[in-house]
Amino acid sequence: MPASYTDDDLADGRAALLSGWSSGSEPGLVITKTSGALVWDSKGNEYIDCTAMAWSNNIGGSNPEVVDAAFAQARELSHLRSNFDSVPLLLLAKAMTDAAPGDLKRIGFTLHGSLAVEMAMKLALQNRPQHTGPFLTLTDAYHGRSLASMGLGWPHTNHAFDRTFPAVLRVPQPYAYRSGRSEDDEVDYCIAELRDAIARRATGLPPAFFVEPVQGNGAQLDFPRRYYQEVRQVCDEHGILLVFDEVQTGFGRTGSMWAAEHYGVTPDLLVFGKGVGGGFPLAGVLSSSTLDGFQPGDDALTFGEFPPSLAAGLAALEVLRRDNLLQACAEMGAYTTDALRAMQPRHPLIGDIRGPGLLIGIELVRDQQTKEPAAAEALEVYRRAVDLGVIFGTTKYAGLGNVLKIKPPFTITRAQLDRVLAVLDQVLTDIETGRSFPR
Ligand SMILES: Cc1ncc(COP(=O)(O)O)c(C=O)c1O
C-alpha cells in the first residue's frame, strides 16, 4: 500500500472506476486490513466479516503462512510461461487430486471461478462432441461474469451481453420454501422438469448440466439430498456430464472438503475457486480420469498457472488440514444455525433458515403466510449492522434480494459469532418495531 494518500486521492480513484459495488448499495467502505474474521476500514473501524470477502477467506483473512508462502514463491519465480511447469503447480496438482472425491484425479488451474467454469464448458464440449444441444443450468444459477459463464447464469436485467451467450436451457431448482410443496414432491417436480427438458425442449442432447450444489448468489439455497442422487442418475442415463460448480461450496464451506462429499454424489467435473487460494486468485477444475483433457493451447492463459497463487494454495490446504478447519466450520455452522432457529420465533421477519456449515442463508419475509419478500428490510439490516460493526452478506444478483448470509471465515470465534447473533437480534427487533436508527 502507498505510504501516504489523502481522502481526495481515494475519491478521485472511486470516480474513475468503471464500476464496482462500492458505488452501489455498499456504503463506500475502503477496507485496509484483515486478520482472521475481522476487517478494518480506512477510518480505523473494525468489523466482523460474515462474507469472508466474497466467501474466499475460508481460512481467515491474510493468513500469515499463506502470505509468506506466496511471497517466498514470488521472490524465486513470480511468473512463468505456461509452456513450462513450476514446482508449486505440480505439487498442488498432486495435493488437490489426492484430496478429491471419487475418480476426480485430473486437474486444471486458472485464476478466476468464471474462467474455471469456462474450462469446464470446454471440457464438456470436447468430451461430448455428439451432444449438440444447449447446456443445462438451474433457474437463479450464478456461474460468474465472463461472457460465457454469465450466459449460464440466470439473466441479469439491463445487460447488453446476451447476444454473445452460449445456448442454455434452464430447469427449476428445488425451492420447497417458496413452492409450498413438500421436499419430496419438490424433488419429484424438479426431476420431472429436468427429464422433460432433455426429452422435449432441448434441440439435441445437452453436453453438461451445471449445478451449484448450494446456490449462493441465487437465494443461498441448499437442496434435499435425494435431488443430487436423482440428478446424477438422469445425467448417467443420457451421458450428460454433471458439473458441480463448487466455487462457493468447495474448500470446506459445507463442513466437508467438497459439497460432493457432503451430499454423497460425485460429479464428472468439479469447478473450484475462491477459498482454495487462501485469499490469492486461484481456481480450476477437477475432472474425472475417464474424460479427455486439453490439447496444447486449448486453455492456455498467460497468468493461468500463477506460481505465487499456487504456492498460496498449497499453504492454504496445509492450514485447513492442520488447524482442523473443516471441523471448525461444521461446528460453528451448527452453532449459528441452532442459535438462529432459537431466535426465529421472536422475529416475524425470519421466514427460513438454511445451511449447511458456514454457508448460512436467512430468508426475510414481510408475512409468514404470503412470504412476501422483505428485500428493503434485508438491505436495512445490512446497513444497520455495518454501523454496529458486522458485515452480513445479502443477495444482490438473482433471487428476490431478501436473503441475509452468514458465511464468515472458519476461524471465526464463538465470541465473534455471539456478537454477530446479538447484532442481528437487535437490528431485526429495531426494524420490526419500527425503531429508527441514528445515523
Ligand atoms: C458459484 C460461482 N461460480 C463462479 C463464480 C465466479 O468466480 P469469479 O468471481 O472468481 O470469477 C462465483 C463467484 O461468485 C460463484 O459464486
Q: How does this model look, in words?
A:
It is a single chain. The protein is α/β, with parallel strands linked by helices. The chain contains 14 helices and 17 strands. It has helices at residues 7-16, 52-55, 64-76, 87-98, 113-127, 147-152, 176-179, 183-201, 225-238, 259-263, 307-322, 325-343, 375-387, 414-432; strands at residues 31-35, 38-41, 46-49, 106-110, 135-138, 168-171, 208-211, 214-215, 221-222, 241-245, 269-272, 283-287, 350-354, 360-364, 390-391, 393-394, 403-406. A 5-stranded mixed sheet has the order 4-12-11-10-7, sandwiched between helices. A hairpin with an 8-residue loop joins strand 16 (393-394) and strand 17. Helix 4 (87-98) runs parallel beside helix 11 (307-322), helix 8 packs parallel to helix 9 (225-238) and helix 13 (375-387) crosses helix 14 (414-432). The longest helix has 19 residues, at 183-201. The radius of gyration is 22 Å and the shape is globular. It starts with 6 loop residues before the first helix and ends in a 7-residue tail after the last helix. The model has no long low-confidence stretch (mean pLDDT 94). The structure holds pyridoxal-5'-phosphate. Pyridoxal-5'-phosphate is lined by residues 112-114, 117, 142-144, 212, 216-217, 245, 247-248, 273, 283.
